[in-house]
Design a protein that fits this description.
Layout lengths: L2 H14 L3 E5 L5 E6 L14 H4 L11 H8 L3 E8 L4 E10 L7 E8 H23 L5 E5 L4 E4 L1 H7 L3 H7 L10 H10 L8 E10 L5 E13 L2 E11 L1 H54 L4 H28 L6 E4 L1 H12 L7 E8 L5 E5 H18 L3 E10 L5 E8 L6 H4 L19 H11 L3 E7 L3 E11 L3 H9 L1
Parallel strand pairs: 12-14
Antiparallel strand pairs: 1-2, 1-5, 3-4, 4-5, 6-7, 6-10, 8-9, 9-10, 11-13, 13-17, 14-15, 15-17, 16-17
Helix pairs in contact: 8-9, 9-13, 10-11, 11-13
Length: 496
């Protein structure tokens, strides 16, 4: 096909176009016309001014697209152009010839307004869908321009941060969303290629800040938005990690409790074997020491030596008894009982002891608490041990606070026992439930008390933990599963 033939086909194509196609010079002279519009089919129009030949005007139109192309040297579109001869609206698309450099002519195409209307309708539909997608995203979405002004802020972001959507869009700067210079660090790392590629962040951990100053650990996915090579905005999708971190901490605590339980079970078996092995020789030492004291006339020095043997043997016997108590895993006399009354019984037993004469005991017990299923004697041992330890730590002077409440989960009772003693340092605190660990002076304790307490609470399906600060006292927290059916327990108590 020759060049002339190619140009002929191109001309035929333009003439077959069902609307108007014109080419005008920079001074608005018609250079060429084409299309099926009867108004432009006359070759006599060539050389005339476009505004005179087509619109019957004496001067260029105020919103002439050709004029805009001359000024900008770039393509433009004018929507809703009016065609008087057809009493209808259309659209004009104009572009410079050549596309770059000095404008030699301007080509102008006429389209039906319905085409643009359809495009606009589709764009509005797409925009509405995108807005709805962002607004209803389960994770927070925030976008900001390069000045930091927030331009997108969805409902999930509002829920996580405490800002309302309107408040964020009207007054929030993205710098307020991060701690310290966090916003600058995010942009710096986003421009590097170390966190998912240049202009992107993937699984980027940083701490955000809520409206009330709450620190919010987040995992951020973000990217820079470009127009050409120019940065115009940034957008981030982030996941609030607070619940995940809480669950991780809870899992770690549960794992630690499981390890502790396994360790205690192993030590319990060992303790039981040791205790039984020691019982017989200790019984013999005690028996023969008493016989020597009763049947022989000993001088004072020798008598004191035998009494020392007897005292130490009795101390060993007490240790063996605690070992057996520690090793015992059998639940006895399990029935529904009121924790409040169990604590009250313990306080009645110790209130007249000299150790508690200068100690104030405060109780805060919720009304109508559910009962727990347990062994009253064993739980008495638990509370007694903790209360006596608290009194000894305070050296007989201070305050013990006891609170009993139902957990928020409604499946457990929570007992808090705190004192105003010297507290326990962190290194010691993590060992207090281990057998034979004690902070008391030699001869004042075996270190088995809290390990027995731990076992008892574990046998009851509960948990026990302690928190303490030096100079601020110590608090033990006991959680026990509740039982809703305690009628049988009440009947048992009445028969007893």
């Amino acid at each position: 096909m020759t060049l002339d033939q190619s140009q002929q086909y191109l001309l035929k194509a333009l003439n077959a176009f069902d609307k108007r196609v014109v080419v005008v010079s920079p001074d608005f002279e018609l250079l060429a016309v084409a299309g099926q519009d009867p108004k432009v089919q006359s070759e006599d129009m060539v050389g005339c001014k476009c505004y005179e030949a087509i619109y019957g005007r004496g001067e260029p139109c105020k919103v002439c697209p050709a004029k805009q192309v001359i000024n900008t040297k770039a393509a433009t579109i004018r929507t809703r152009a009016y065609w008087p001869e057809k009493d209808q609206e259309g659209c004009l698309y104009a572009f410079p010839i050549p596309p770059e450099g000095e404008v030699e002519a301007i080509a102008v195409f006429h389209f039906d307004a319905s085409i643009i209307t359809g495009i606009e309708t589709e764009m509005r539909r797409s925009h509405a869908f995108l807005q709805n997608l962002i607004r209803n995203a389960s994770d927070p979405v925030i976008a900001a321009d390069m000045t930091g002004r927030v331009i997108i802020f969805n409902e999930a972001a509002a829920e996580a941060t405490g800002y309302s959507v309107d408040e964020a869009l009207s007054s929030l700067n993205i710098r307020q969303f991060y701690l310290n210079d966090g916003a600058y660090k995010v942009m710096e790392d986003m421009r590097s290629d170390q966190h998912g590629g240049a202009g992107k962040l993937k699984k980027y951990r940083i701490t955000a800040k809520g409206k009330d100053g709450t620190e919010i650990p987040i995992s951020l996915y973000a990217s820079i938005i470009y127009e050409g090579e120019l940065e115009v905005a940034s957008i981030g999708f982030f996941h609030d990690l607070r619940e995940e971190i809480h669950m991780q901490q809870k899992l770690e605590k549960t794992q630690a409790q499981l390890l502790q339980s396994e360790k205690m079970a192993s030590l319990g078996k060992l303790a039981a074997g040791v205790a039984h092995q020691l019982n017989n020789p200790l019984g013999s030492i005690t028996l023969y020491s008493k016989l020597i004291l009763e049947e022989y006339d000993l001088d004072n020095g020798l008598k004191e030596d035998v009494q020392l043997i007897l005292r130490d043997a009795e101390r060993c016997r007490d240790t063996v008894r605690e070992l057996l108590e520690f090793a015992r895993q059998k639940r006895q006399s399990m029935k529904p009982l009121e924790i409040g009354k169990a604590v009250e019984r313990c306080l009645t037993l110790i209130e007249n002891q000299s150790l508690f004469q200068n100690i104030e005991v405060n109780q805060e017990v919720e009304e109508d608490l559910p009962w727990v299923f347990g062994d009253g004697q064993q739980l008495n041992h638990v509370f007694m041990n903790i209360l006596i330890n608290a009194a000894q730590a305070m050296e007989g002077k201070g305050t013990i606070n006891i609170s009993i409440r139902e957990a928020e989960t409604k499946d457990r009772l929570v007992v808090n026992i705190s004192d105003t003693g010297p507290g326990i340092d962190t290194d010691h605190l993590k060992h207090i439930f281990e057998p034979f660990f004690t902070t008391k002076e030699e001869g004042q304790g075996t270190g088995l008390g809290l390990s027995v307490v731990y076992n008892i609470i574990e046998y009851h399906g509960g948990t026990i933990s302690a928190c303490s600060e030096i100079g601020q006292g110590t608090m033990f927290t006991i959680e026990l599963p509740i039982t809703r059916n305690h009628q049988k327990g009440e009947q048992d108590d009445e028969r007893a």
